[in-house]
Amino acid sequence: MTTDPIPSAAPSLARLVQELHKLPGIGPKSAQRLAYYLIRLPEEEAFALADAINGAKRNIVFCQECQNLSDSPLCGICAESQRNREQICVVEDPLDVLALERSHCYHGLYHVLHGVISPLNGVGPDQLKLKELYERLGNGQVKELVIATNPTLEGEATAMYIRRHLAGTDLKITHLARGLPVGGSLEYTDELTLSRAFQGRQEL
Amino acid sequence: MTTDPIPSAAPSLARLVQELHKLPGIGPKSAQRLAYYLIRLPEEEAFALADAINGAKRNIVFCQECQNLSDSPLCGICAESQRNREQICVVEDPLDVLALERSHCYHGLYHVLHGVISPLNGVGPDQLKLKELYERLGNGQVKELVIATNPTLEGEATAMYIRRHLAGTDLKITHLARGLPVGGSLEYTDELTLSRAFQGRQEL
């Protein structure tokens, strides 16, 4: 829409379409459809969305411990007293915390890096929340660091970087197993995953 | 998200995800991704979207003539002096006006019904902007009514309803040609479209 403005649409409508079109995954047609949908909504519902955007933007801060997004200085997970404080799981993104929480497989704390080392995109270690991670590890309470960056080139490189930085400490550093996704099939698994699954084979 | 609330997400974030998830075509995953995207945006850009929603909701009214969405009592098209005021094109939706305007094939006025007659969905003629259409036709300036409802069952029924209501007047009532879409192929055209294209064949 930015390149092809709507002819003869009302200005405030055109502006709404333009703003919606900026969102990731929202093309010009979807932006139009969403805009008309919002205009047809009862006032309080449309205002609720605008409010939610403003509210989230105003209230969300980084948790002072794990750097996850939070409404309060200490996030819900860090504030939970039942959490195992001897484990920290390092993830790239707040969405990764949600994914792990949904799996109910982990009950320790998290640390959100907010990115990965990616020289091509100009992201170096200093842009990540690594300083905050090393500070947390300083008090000696943490026994295991589970590095759960994505199994991509950049995720692996970031994991390596952290492992190297912490070499020599008596911290146990692990990463998530690579292997066949549950429900997948050997036939459609790529070679790299297959070889990792083979290397990591376990006794039945 | 409404049925499966995010565990341990910040409340204002969860609320934003919930509001986004209400939009048509935005599933729970997209809502999450959009919410995190919005939170990462520079403040002024996120506020711009919220503003655009509020602004559109506050400023948009129905054009007093054609009932299209407009920022002012008379919309841009109705206010244009070069328009042919002897033709009115009846469409279901504001988006249809945009589509026709983009084709640059029509230079008359429009009338937006804001729906079609659809007994199954409880929409009768009274819910549409038909009274306003008949009023506009009352002054005798209009010579042709182009009914451009969608070529669907409900669109055709609405067209028929309007034609029947205006029977006996000396108004020329037309509808858009049915036929092969440009760039389509005979092989993949459905039987109904093909038979309409055959019936409407034109001399070369």
Note the main attributes of this structure.
2 domains; globular; two-stranded antiparallel ribbon; about 200 residues; about 40% helix; 4-stranded parallel beta sheet; Dna Topoisomerase Vi A Subunit, Chain: A, domain 2; Helicase, Ruva Protein, domain 3
SSE topology sketch:
The structure is a homodimer of 204-residue chains.
Chain A: H1 11-21, H2 28-40, H3 43-59, E1 61-62, E2 69-70, H4 76-79, E3 84-91, H5 94-103, E4 108-112, H6 130-137, E5 144-147, H7 153-165, E6 172-175, H8 191-199
Parallel strand pairs in A: 3-4, 3-5, 5-6
Antiparallel strand pairs in A: 1-2
Helix pairs in contact in A: 1-2
Which CATH architecture of the largest domain in chain A? 3-Layer(aba) Sandwich
Oligomeric state, counting identical vs distinct chains: homodimer
In angstroms, what is the radius of gyration of chain A?
Answer: 22 Å
* CATH topology-level fold name of the largest domain in chain A: Dna Topoisomerase Vi A Subunit, Chain: A, domain 2
Helix content of chain A: 40-55%
What overall form of chain A do the CA principal axes indicate?
globular
**Structure class of chain A:** alpha/beta
Average pLDDT figure of chain A: 89
Order of helices and strands of chain A: HHHEEHEHEHEHEH
Give me the count of strands of chain A. Answer: 6
Assign the CATH class of the largest domain in chain A. Answer: Alpha Beta
Domain count of chain A: the total is 2
Beta-strand proportion of chain A? 5-15%
Biggest sheet descriptor of chain A: 4 strands, parallel
Biggest interface, residues from each chain: A-B, 59 and 58 residues
Number of helices of chain A: 8
Query: What is the topology, as strand order, of the major beta sheet of chain A?
Result: 4-3-5-6
Task: Note poorly predicted spans of chain A.
Answer: none
Distance between the termini of chain A: 57 Å
